Amino acid sequence: MVEGRIGMTLTRHIYEGQLEHPQATGQLTGILNQIALAAKIVSREVNKAGLVEALGFTGDENIQGEEVRKLDQFAQDVFYAAFDHPGHFCIMVSEEEDAAIPIPDEFEKGPYAIAFDPLDGSSNIDANITVGTIFAIWRRRSEGQEGCEEDLLQPARDLTAAGYVVYGTSTMLVASTGHGVHGFTLDPSVGEFLESHHNIRIPQRGKIYSANEGNYPYWSEGVKSYVDWIKQPDEAGDRPYSSRYVGSMVADIHRTLLYGGIFMYPADSKQGKMNTGKLRLLYECAPMGYLVEQAGGAASTGSSPILDVVPQELHQRVPFFAGSMQNVADLRRFVAENDK
Ligand code: AFP
Predict the structure, then answer these.
(1) Peptide bond before residue 240 is cis, with ω within 30 degrees of 0
(2) Second label for 110, Cα 20 to 30 Å away, from 49, 164, 211, 215?
(3) How much is the pLDDT for 255?
(4) HSE-up of 192 (CA within 13 Å, CB side)?
(5) For 116-157, how does the pLDDT look when each residue is reduced to its tens digit (9 = 90+)?
(6) Distance from C-alpha of 53 to C-alpha of 56, rounded to nearest angstrom
(7) Distance 247 CA to ligand 1 centre (A)
């Protein structure tokens, strides 16, 4: 059971981390504080969504061809406003926008680039199911004032920080700056994120698998045979695994981090030939893979570590398998043996 430390607010946690690094400029502290503020605003709206008729479609489509729901747009606006002016970033990319988003001319440019999904799992909102925000932060690579795509097209191995906010039965911010994964639960009575999960460690093996199994006929032989295997009872009683799938990546990864097991969104051949799966690298798989590895787990495309994938384009998709170290190793073994 991971527990937080009494009186440890997110702000204090970040500040103390900063004190351990005398060379720190405080920029990262500022960024996480901005994210926390935006998360509180989005959390408030998510919680009252049904009451104020914030649900429903705006009528627009995002880059993925999905209809944009009002809360998606609201979350996009809130996080954009948190990132555009404080001088932390030189460029951003969001799931909601096709092109990279520049920092407006009138604002100072900063040393970081950010990729974010303002409201992941939003097709679940109408059913009152958990949704979340995901973010990934890299140090910029380019020189000069304006940032460019090169600052965003970096592998997860080079992340400076990543995290997510889960708007569930309570709102939690889970983040890592490369020194373990820590979770902070929003206490609405004081309006603060308080540390509730210090140094989350994912179990080495878990007995839960999480996948959209409706896609089974379209998976590769390796993935099919792995899933067949985890459903077969064994003498030791380690199998079959239990199946849990929310369809909201933040919720499924959050559970996987705490309870162990494996989350997967494999490539499939629904459109005829094998694709690269549904999930996006920059603002879904890279940050979640980084967090899972920071917690002692593993994240893979099925054949190589997610952290080593060098992005070629902003909205690139990749097959994604993440969770307990041993579960991901099993999956990789089945893929290596069956998918030549
Ligand atoms: P939405 O934001 O459109 O609801 O998509 C959510 C998501 O990107 C991710 O959070 C889920 O894990 C995955 O898609 C669910 O996809 P399926 O509906 O194909 O299972």
Answers:
(1) yes
(2) 164
(3) 98
(4) 12
(5) 999 999 888 888 899 999 999 999 999 989 999 999 999 999
(6) 8
(7) 5
Which residue's alpha carbon is at the smallest distance from atom 5 of ligand 1? 121
Separation of CA 249 and ligand 1 centre (Å): 6
Q: Is the pLDDT of residue 166 over 70?
A: yes
The first and second tokens of residue 183, run together, are 């979770």
b/e per residue, 134-164, with b = 16+ CB within 10 A?
Answer: bbbbbebeeeeeebbeebbbbbbeebbbbbb
Nearest CA to ligand 1 atom 18: 247
Rg (CA), the chain: 20
